[in-house]
Amino acid sequence: MPKILTIAVVWFALSLPASSSLAQSAHYFSTLKHVHVTGFQGWFACPSDSAGVGWGHWFRGKADPQKPDSLAIDNWPDTTELDPDEKCPTGFKLRSGAPAYLFSDQNPKTVSRQFRWMKDYDIDGVALQRFGSILDGKSLQRQFDTVLSHVRAAAETYHRGFFIMYDGITADRIEAIKRDWQQLTEAAHLTESPAYIFHRGKPVVGLWGLGFPDRDLSAAQAADLINFFRTAKLPATVLGGVPTRWRLQGAGSRPEPEWASVFRSFDILSPWTVGRFGNDAGADDFAKNVLIPDLAEVKQLGIDYMAVAFPGFSWHNGYGRTLNAPLDAIPRRCGGFYKHQIANLTKAGVDMLYTAMFDEANEGTSILKMAVHPGALPDGVSMVPLDDGGCEAAKDDMYLRLAGEASRSLRDRRAPPAPPR
Questions:
Q1: Span 66-116, pLDDT tens digits
Q2: Which of 118, 139, 296, 416 is least crowded, fewest Cβ atoms below 10 Å from its Cβ?
Q3: Is the pLDDT confidence value at 50 over 70?
């Protein structure tokens, strides 16, 4: 093992909570059935934290954060609950005249608060994103390792669940991902945490992006990676974040015939729907022509299915700037768009739910507490407040409450207990 990776693993193992012992290995979630998780990026940083990466994901590249057009986010987080030692000054002023602050996921207090919100609002846990591109033992890996440690501690404190979701899986990152899983499970004992989510008797690991046209991964390489997780020293239940139209290998999916067997080799399928429709009519068409036939096929194959719902979409200030992407490309409609999807999923019989995402402000899909009114946004910046579209009763926790309602709707579908004999 390269020296720098050895140091990173030792540091990460030492930073884990004491509750990682085998004596406390009972897990809060032994199944994903009727469980609601939300994607968690955890990649936000600021210059004053310990990560050493500057304004991680809040601003574009090395852009001057004093300039409004350097922002990389379309949702502005509500930071009024944060303590002074959690607030990162931006140099901006809100339209109300107050200083504008952001936060860092390097601060354990901030991550812990977000998991307390999950408990308060009845969200079961997270799929924690972990990117192949950062697995080199350098500053970005240390940043993400720190977040993983914070997530584990917070999930254990508030009895929430989490599992690793690998993203950024390219051909040159396969071996790094394999080594990372071995290190996390064998050296850091990550899956011994009572908060780590299990399903079918094994820890869950997600592989996101296999079979998408923009990933330089062959079907054979994908099959090898899936098989690795199945046969590792600690075998895993493998969830695939796959293209929306995986079943017929339609638009947005790799068309080569060998991918058909790869898609059907996952233990759990989770087709990505963000941006694939933008209104209720599109959601209805997806439910009728994609979701319901998907559910029929996976039932026949013995594969589980984790459906994805999202509140809206906007990446005007971030990655979409080079595409001249419009602001508020898929309007949230005061929660109506998200609620309509949940209703469709519930009606179709979905029993696992993934909300995209908890903290994805770059693509405007975040559900954490956010600025409600234009006066709570930075001056001179085009962004999407929660009352956009005339939501006069909107509050900063609007989408946390809606996500909690989705959790309860999912649980209401559980079969009643058998009568006593």
A1: 677 789 999 999 999 999 999 999 989 998 899 999 999 999 999 999 999
A2: 416
A3: yes
Enumerate residues 6+ apart whose C-beta is below 8 A from 247: 263, 290, 293, 294, 297
Q: Nearest to residue 202, comparing CAs of 268, 271, 283?
A: 268
Q: What is the DSSP string of 165-188?
A: EEE---GGGHHHHHHHHHIIIIIS
Residue 58 C-alpha from the chain's centroid:
17
Secondary structure letter of residue 68 according to DSSP? G
In angstroms, rounded to a whole number, what is the distance separating the alpha carbons of residues 412 and 382? 40
Question: Tokens 């997270």 map to which residue?
Answer: 126
Beta strands in 108-252 (DSSP E): 125-131, 161-167, 198-199, 202-208, 237-242
The neighbour count for residue 390, using CB atoms within 10 Å, is: 8
Cis peptide before 118 (omega within 30 of 0): no
pLDDT tens, residue by residue, 240-283: 999 999 999 999 999 999 999 999 999 999 999 999 999 999 99
**What's the pTM value of the predicted model, to 2 decimals?**
0.92
Q: Quick check: 4 pLDDT over 80?
A: no
- Residue 233's identity, in one-letter code, is K
Classify residue 3 as exposed, middle or buried by CB count within 10 Å of its CB (0-12, 13-18, 19+).
exposed
pLDDT at 66: 63
Nearest Cα neighbor of 312 from 245, 378, 402, 230 is 402
d(CA 116, CA 108): 12
The pLDDT value given to residue 63: 55
For range 349-372, the mean pLDDT: 97
Name the region of 34 (left: φ>0; alpha: ψ -120 to 50; beta: rest).
left
Q: b or e along 324-353 (b: 16 or more beta carbons within 10 Å of the residue's beta carbon)?
A: ebeebbbbbbbbbbbbbbbebbbeeebbbb
Q: Rounded distance, CA 107 to CA 111, Å?
A: 7
